[in-house]
Specification:
With about 325 residues, the protein is of the alpha+beta class. The protein is about 35% helix and about 25% strand. The protein contains ten helices and 17 strands. The strands form four sheets. Strands 1, 5, 6, 7, 8, 9, 10, 11 and 14 form a nine-stranded mixed beta sheet that branches. It has a three-stranded antiparallel beta sheet with strand order 2-4-3. The protein has a three-stranded parallel beta sheet with strand order 16-15-17, sandwiched between helices. The longest helix has 19 residues. The chain is elongated and about 75 Å long. The two termini are about 35 Å apart. The model has no long low-confidence stretch (mean pLDDT about 90).
């Protein structure tokens, strides 16, 4: 998370925190209640209906709209790492790759029509940098208008055209995925393969002209009030799913910067246990993970072998 948060900071995103529970009236305003309520955990409080948030976009719309906005402020980029809940069917649940409670590196960009292509290009370069760091290649899909959708057809066609032009300019091969867009806008889906060659959709970039209309979002262009455009985007997607994919891909041999077992100190004998603990603390204080194996019932050779099998990146002997 430190890695991805640093990347967000470098790209001008502001990390925000939003509530976990909202009144159903908010979801009705956003359109989620009409199109997504069966996938939401809802309950009654004081004769009103509330629901755990399955996504962050309505909350970010409220944050954008809490005061007047000027064109000089745009683009506004918000990043949210809060907990989300989705009522997935029990048969669809699968380990960490499909869960009901998860976190996303969820972000929303509020921009003008003229800024769309530049922001989409920034999103694509962002995911290219992150996935290259993890050692993944990826496949791009343009998902277009589904059967159930919000808004006017001509607005959808314009949004799809802008995404298509952005993909062409990016220069990476892409495929068309007709009818698989979100109900509020077309999207670019990014698929990666795990160690077993199974495809997983992690990152996504979605263009949204509908929520600004439904929330009556506006900014002052200097001449008149105009609607911003929202770009929904995630790079890792579900953090839990990404961890599952990385775990299988690395097969326990984690790179040092990601490893949960970066180092271990193995003393020659009990008389060096105190010193081993001192070394482990020095490594820990330097910002790295380090343990000390002080098991009196195990020989030094056995400790070293155990550490090798556990895939520690560094084994310090003393």
């Amino acid at each position: 998370m430190n890695f991805i948060k640093a990347e967000y900071w470098e790209r001008g995103f502001q990390e925000v925190i939003t509530p976990n529970i909202y009144n159903s009236k908010l979801w009705e305003m956003s359109g989620h209640w009409q199109h997504y309520s069966e996938h939401m955990f809802s309950f009654e409080v004081e004769k009103e209906r509330f629901a755990l948030k399955p996504m962050n976009c309505p909350g970010h719309c409220l944050m954008f709209d809490h005061r007047p906005r000027s064109w000089r402020e745009l683009p506004i980029r918000m990043a949210d790492f809060g907990v989300l809940h989705r009522n997935e069917l029990s048969g669809a649940l699968s380990g960490l790759t499909r869960v009901r409670r998860f976190q996303q590196d969820d972000g929303h960009i509020f921009c003008t029509q003229d800024q769309i292509k530049e922001e989409i290009r920034g999103c694509l370069n962002f995911l290219k940098k992150v996935y290259a760091t993890f050692g993944y290649s990826f496949t791009l899909f343009l998902s277009t208008r589904p059967d159930k959708y919000l808004g006017e057809v001509h607005v959808w066609e314009d949004a799809e055209k802008q995404l298509e032009e952005s993909l062409d300019a990016f220069g990476w091969p892409w495929k068309l995925n007709p009818g698989d867009g979100a109900f509020y806008g077309p999207k670019i889906d990014i698929t990666i393969m795990d160690a077993l060659k199974r495809p997983h959709q992690c990152a996504t970039i979605q263009l949204d002209f509908q929520l600004p209309e439904r929330f009556n979002l506006q900014y002052d262009s200097g001449e008149e009030k105009k609607r911003p455009v929202i770009i929904h985007r995630a790079i890792l997607g579900s953090v839990e799913r990404m961890i599952a994919i990385l775990t299988e891909s690395y097969g326990g041999k984690w790179p040092f910067w990601l490893s949960p077992r970066q180092s271990i100190v193995v003393p020659v004998g009990p008389q060096f246990d105190e010193y081993a603990q001192t070394v482990a603390k020095q490594v820990h204080d330097a910002g790295f993970l380090c343990e000390a194996d002080l098991d009196l019932g195990t020989t030094m050779n056995k400790k070293i072998r155990n550490a090798q099998l556990a895939q520690y990146n560094f084994i310090f002997g003393r």
